[in-house]
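note to self: dont lose this again. the chain is below, predicted strucutre after it. 159 aa total, dont forget to put it in the shared folder this time
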Amino acid sequence: MSEKMSAVQIELVKPNRPDVVALIRDLDTFLKSLYPPESTHLLDVETLMQPNIRFLAALHEGQAIGCGAIRLEADYAEIKRMYVQPSWHGQGIAYRLLQALEVLAGELGFSITRLETGIRQDAALKLYERNGYVRRPPFGEYTDDPLSLCYEKRLTRMD
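---
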């Protein structure tokens, strides 16, 4: 691991931090450039502050450079709001965030994680597929959308 990467910490944070709000705004701008409104499923900061959400940030020198969340549902944890600043791409941060979200979901008693992502996000698709996520039919609020893909992963128990 590079010295730069070892200086990146993954921490549970409040999503209303100014640096995190800026990340979420950048993510929204990126997604809106790729998809029409009916194909985006954005959670705003107020929603991310709800008790059924756990929000993680990748921090470098105290500043958020990446983020991800899990939304706690009845029988699964949904991965939401995964994003890494473009200047940090290729450093393994998204992988570390995804792993941390899965560990957190497991610690909270979930054995399944699910997610929805778009067909135009090649890096995200590769990340999820390389990490054991398999395609599944739409779930929850998602409907059949030609621009949307849903995935699921069964978490392995460590006890």
